[in-house]
């Protein structure tokens, strides 16, 4: 049987890596992985090749390289990395390039990793949160959501795939509980009592694999995924159980969070405020039952923590 090739952008990263590993772990599933990377010689690219992926070099900024990398594929997973450059405009150009290449190569199914354009809920005139860079509320969300239409405009068969907060941010993004001057751990979020849809980053790719496996069913649809919807207090409780140490939930205001001063603190402060203020919508768009139907191995926060507790910094 000829396998359907999925060209996976971001294959050396969290989302694309999860998808690549999900496909490679299911050799009878009918799909094969073409892993796209700027550097086929990186350790992560070599690890994918070792697992059985075809690794090809391509750059999201170079549409010709994408056309070559997508050629002959059945589908593509398209993801951009805002945090490498902090530019919504750059992300949008990369999305245009991927849509162009998908159209050119007549792909049958694209999964576009997007997020909400929060300005549909919080227009720029709404003063509850600051406007950033003159035209965004949550730049790393808004830029993605605003460009969804390029795939539709070009007639590319696309599933719009809404992802959730990675619990892995507690390992890689400095969001782990931190020790205060009293030596005690505190877990800080500006979401009050609202529930935060979150998931293991690896499960995003596994859910994306489920989307491809559904065939045409989810083309033209926006679907969201999450592993659990938990309040900050519930996350702190789970952390206490797994770390075996008291963790206080430090519920700060979005204003305080925006003032933390690390790169992107204002963007993330607005993002958490959006999730808090439009919580019913935001959780509703990320159904746990649907996510589990795409990925029967979907992890809970407790299970993810148990498997990863040794990797969470505890200073
Ligand atoms: N952190 C969260 O909680 C969270 C939640 C939801 C959504 N997101 C979104 O996730 C996105 C990042 O995805 P990720 O976490 O999977 O990324 P990641 O783990 O940081 O890895 C980035 C990936 O993007 C690839 N890449 C970056 N620029 C490229 C370019 N110009 N050409 C080709 N490949 C390029 C890299 O490939 P090479 O380096 O190998 O070329 C790498 O595979 C962000 O846009 C963020 O907004 C994050």
Task: Describe this structure as you would to a colleague.
- The protein is α/β, with parallel strands linked by helices and 315 residues long.
- The chain is built from 15 helices and 13 strands.
- The chain has a seven-stranded parallel β-sheet with strand order 3-2-1-4-5-6-11, with helices on both faces. A three-stranded mixed β-sheet has the order 7-10-12. It has a three-stranded mixed β-sheet with strand order 8-9-13, covered by helices on one side.
- Helix 5 runs parallel beside helix 6 (139-146).
- The model has no long low-confidence stretch (mean pLDDT 98).
- Bound molecules: NADP nicotinamide-adenine-dinucleotide phosphate (NAP).
- The site of NADP nicotinamide-adenine-dinucleotide phosphate has 27 residues, from helix 1, helix 4 and strand 7.
In which range does the helix fraction lie? 40-55%
Helix and strand pattern: EHEHEHEHHEHHEEHEEEHEEHEHHHHH
Q: Which whole number gives the mean pLDDT?
A: 98
Number of strands: 13
In angstroms, what is the radius of gyration?
19 Å
Please give the count of helices. Answer: 15
Side by side, the strands of the main sheet go 3-2-1-4-5-6-11
Biggest sheet architecture:
7 strands, parallel
What class do helices, strands and sheet pairing give? alpha/beta
Ions and ligands: NADP nicotinamide-adenine-dinucleotide phosphate
End-to-end Cα distance, whole Å, is 52 Å
Shape: globular
Low-confidence stretches: none
% residues in beta strands: 15-25%
């Amino acid at each position: 049987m000829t396998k359907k090739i999925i060209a996976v952008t971001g294959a050396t990263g969290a989302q694309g890596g999860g998808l690549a590993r999900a496909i490679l772990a299911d050799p009878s599933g009918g799909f094969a992985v073409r892993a796209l990377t700027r550097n086929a010689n990186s350790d992560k690219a070599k690890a994918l090749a070792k697992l059985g992926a075809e690794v090809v070099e391509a750059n999201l900024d170079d549409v010709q390289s994408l056309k070559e990398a997508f050629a002959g594929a059945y589908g593509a997973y398209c993801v951009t990395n805002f945090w490498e450059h902090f530019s919504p405009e750059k992300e949008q150009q990369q999305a245009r390039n991927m849509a162009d290449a998908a159209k050119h190569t007549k792909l049958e199914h694209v999964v576009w990793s997007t997020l909400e354009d929060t300005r549909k809920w919080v227009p720029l005139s709404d003063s509850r949160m600051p406007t950033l860079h003159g035209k965004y509320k949550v730049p790393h969300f808004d830029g993605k959501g605003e460009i969804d239409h390029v795939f539709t405009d070009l007639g590319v068969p696309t599933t719009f795939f809404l992802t959730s907060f990675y619990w892995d941010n507690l390992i890689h993004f400095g969001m782990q509980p931190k020790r205060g001057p009293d030596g005690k751990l505190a877990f800080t979020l500006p979401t009050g009592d609202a529930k935060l849809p979150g998931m293991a980053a690896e499960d995003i790719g596994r859910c994306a694999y489920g989307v491809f496996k559904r065939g045409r069913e989810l083309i033209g649809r926006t679907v969201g995924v999450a592993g659990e919807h938990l309040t900050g207090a519930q996350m702190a409780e789970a952390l206490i159980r797994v770390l075996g140490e008291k963790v206080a939930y430090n519920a700060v205001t979005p204003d305080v969070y925006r003032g933390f001063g690390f790169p992107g603190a204002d963007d993330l402060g607005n993002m958490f405020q959006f999730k808090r203020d439009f919580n019913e919508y935001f959780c509703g768009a990320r159904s746990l039952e649907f996510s589990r139907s795409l990925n029967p191995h979907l992890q809970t926060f407790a299970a993810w923590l148990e498997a990863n507790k040794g990797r969470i910094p505890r200073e």
